[in-house]
Design a protein that fits this description.
Layout lengths: L2 E7 L5 H10 L7 E8 L2 E8 L2 H8 L8 E7 L14 E2 L5 E9 L2 H10 L12 H11 L4 H11 L2 E9 L6 E6 L4 E5 L2 E5 L11 E4 L4 E5 L4 E5 L5 E2 L4 E2 L15 H7 L1 H9 L3 H13 L2 E6 L1 H18 L4 E4 L3 H5 L7 E7 L5 H12 L3 E6 L5 H5 L2 E4 L12 H21 L4 H12 L1 H23 L4 E6 L3 H16 L2 E6 L16 E6 L5 H13 L3 E7 L3 H5 L3 E5 L9 H18 L18
Parallel strand pairs: 16-17, 16-18, 18-19, 19-20, 21-22, 21-23, 23-24, 24-25
Antiparallel strand pairs: 1-4, 1-10, 2-3, 2-4, 5-6, 6-7, 7-8, 8-12, 9-10, 9-11, 11-15, 12-13, 13-14
Bound molecules: 6-O-phosphono-alpha-D-glucopyranose (G6P).
Length: 607
């Protein structure tokens, strides 16, 4: 969840690049910033608690000498956000600088051991044991790479570590186990980062680093070895299609708004995924005895909607489980005939990766849906679908959600063709409707934006909102509530409308806002009943309905309208769009930054 950047270039000062790269990593969520460079045989360091630009105003992050350096945005785990806990961390002689993402579980015993040998610690972090361990091994005569290798054998936990030392001032050494690191390169420069957008303006060529590998970056070379047996790894590079522009705001005030507007083209690109990739996923599902859909956060809501699509279109009834609770729910009752579909935009969420590794132990087949090429999940899964959203910078997921839904829809249609649960003509009609969604979502976005802005003016004083749906729209309700919670800090609850009378209705009194997701599907008439129950207790009803549904419009206080022609299984795709916009404008109206919600991170790499 923290951001890592390292760079070595042939000439020129590297600090301005590191500063800009840290800005590009801001979206991951963080509370402090630090940069270290090497010049004239010395480490030069600036770090402080605060946002990149605040720290820059205070310390001038561009003013550091040298053509190689490392930088970090920290999201506190061990120790409060403070200058001292900010990375990089150093050895006793300020010769070794380390940045680290992840958690070192055995840091207390290592710290005690090192302290007893006379090492001095400046922070409360788990990370700080790393430079001190390296210091000891280098004292024994090891070079930086060997010292880092040896250090990885002492630490337990998860990590991405980037190190440099004045003793070997021509290289950056890095390793990972459980936390992401990608390497970028071009002629006369090498980069390492937790995330691709950090170096996109410099290069689109990257090399994956896998768990248990160590890489040495110099200006002209990248050398990778396996730590277990010191063997050399030869790995092909990958050219990323994402552009640096995609990771810029492109005239929009916030990434989130830009990414909402990019949804039609993201769906379009995802619909063009090669059919073999989709059919292979469908075959794995067809051959499985049981299907588990697992994910976290917004991806969990895609999984829930996917479950409905599989059942309705293919007669395959899956189970949705939160990845964080998967092992505590299935208790090892998995086998090689089960299939787990793991959905994660980042491909790095620790909860999801852990659940997938757990399922693999039992031989279950893994299908992954992710937006990031080369991310951790792609290396564990038996089969991966890469969604085509391009880089998503806003912490609150929008376009990655929409493409997850699109991929699940494609799989459900292919699975339907394989199982024959629905007549082929029905599947064809549904496919046609899916293919029309890019235009329809454009229309919804254009039509809903102004309304979302004006509704935010009405609802911004309401502390608490209930979101209700039935069937697949429960997923839409969950996502609408989550978006509002994430960026406008409202108490918002997504609920099954059917279940709402068994508790949540007790909250409803005069003016209490209830958001109803009511597409024109088989649940529509039953949801009318729920609206009436809520209205009878004074609820203020904001409904998302099909265009021209005058009955629902007449019992609602406010409405968003979605054009006709949406097949029920896919309704989450257009129906969530006004809710994304509503949350965005609620966040703005309340004076928050929707791109950087407090306490949240784009990819959560701790359990
Ligand atoms: C974090 C993000 C959410 C995201 C969730 C799962 O909490 O803030 O937006 O939905 O992680 O992330 P994933 O990368 O697995 O989809």
């Amino acid at each position: 969840m923290c951001g890592i950047i390292g760079a070595i270039q042939q000439r020129g000062e590297v600090a301005p690049f590191l500063h800009q790269a840290l800005k590009r990593l801001e979206y991951r969520g963080y509370d402090s910033v630090g940069v270290t460079t090497i010049a004239d045989g010395k480490l030069h360091m600036k770090k402080e608690k605060g946002k990149v630009e605040e720290v820059h105003r205070l310390l001038d992050l561009d003013d550091l000498p040298g053509s190689m350096g490392i930088g970090h945005t920290r999201w506190a785990t061990h120790g409060i956000p403070s200058l001292y806990n900010s990375h990089p961390h150093f050895d006793c002689n300020s010769e070794i600088a380390v940045i680290h993402n992840g958690v070192i579980d055995n840091f207390l015993e290592l710290r005690e051991e090192l302290a007893s040998k006379g090492h001095k610690f400046d922070s409360e972090t788990d990370t700080e044991v790393i430079p001190h361990l390296i210091e000891d091994y280098m004292k024994e005569g090891m070079d930086l790479k060997s010292a880092l290798k040896k250090t990885t054998k002492r630490i337990e936990g998860t990590y991405a570590i980037v190190v440099m030392s004045t003793r070997e001032p021509d290289k950056i050494v890095c390793t990972r186990d459980g936390n992401p690191l990608v390497i970028g390169y071009k002629e006369s420069a090498s980069y390492v980062s937790s995330d691709i957008p950090a170096f996109l303006p410099m290069t689109n060529d990257m090399i994956l680093l896998l768990d248990g590998e160590i890489a040495t970056l110099t200006v002209n070379d990248i050398e990778i070895e396996k730590i277990s047996d010191d063997s050399r790894v030869e790995r092909e590079s990958i050219r990323i299609s994402w552009t640096a522009d995609q990771a810029q705001k492109g005239g929009f005030p916030h990434f989130m708004l830009k990414e909402i507007h990019e949804q039609p083209s993201a769906i379009r690109s995802t619909l063009k995924l090669r059919s073999e990739v989709i059919v292979r996923a469908a075959q794995i599902l067809r051959d499985a005895n049981r299907v588990f859909l697992i994910a976290m956060g917004t991806s969990g809501h895609a999984a829930l909607a996917g479950k409905h699509m599989f059942a309705s279109l293919a007669g395959v009834v899956g189970t949705f489980e939160l990845a964080s609770d998967f092992s505590d729910t299935v208790y090892g009752a998995l086998n090689e005939n089960d299939c787990v579909i793991a959905i994660t935009q980042s491909g790095e969420t620790t909860d999801t990766i852990t659940a997938v590794k757990y399922a693999k132990q039992y031989g279950s087949k893994i299908v992954a849906i992710t937006n990031v090429v080369g991310s951790s999940i792609t290396r564990i899964a038996d089969h991966t679908i890469i969604t085509q959203a391009g880089p998503e910078i806003g912490v609150a997921a929008t376009k990655t959600f929409i493409v997850q839904l699109t991929s699940l829809a494609l799989i459900a249609l292919a699975l339907g063709e394989l199982t024959g649960f629905k007549d082929p003509s029905v599947i064809m009609r549904k496919r046609d409707s899916l293919n029309r969604l890019p235009e329809l979502v454009s229309e919804v976005t254009a039509k809903s934006e102004e309304r979302a802005r004006s509704l935010a003016n009405i609802y911004h004083t309401k502390p608490s909102l209930l979101f209700l749906g039935r069937g697949v729209s429960i997923a839409t309700a969950f996502e609408g509530a989550l978006k509002l919670k994430e960026i406008a800090y409202n108490h918002a609850e997504g609920y099954s409308a059917g279940e709402s009378k068994h508790g949540p209705i007790a909250l409803v009194q005069d003016g209490f806002p209830v958001v109803i997701i009511a597409p024109n599907d088989e649940t529509r008439n039953r949801i009318v009943g729920n609206i009436m129950e809520m209205k009878a207790r004074g609820a203020d009803i904001l409904s998302v309905i099909e265009d021209g549904d005058s009955d629902l419009a007449s019992i609602s206080d406010h409405i968003f309208e979605i054009p006709k022609g949406v097949e029920p299984e896919f309704s989450t795709i257009p129906y969530v769009v006004p809710l994304q916009l509503f949350s965005y404008y609620m966040s703005l109206r309340k004076g928050y930054d929707p791109d950087k919600p407090r306490n949240l991170a784009k990819s959560v790499t701790v359990l």
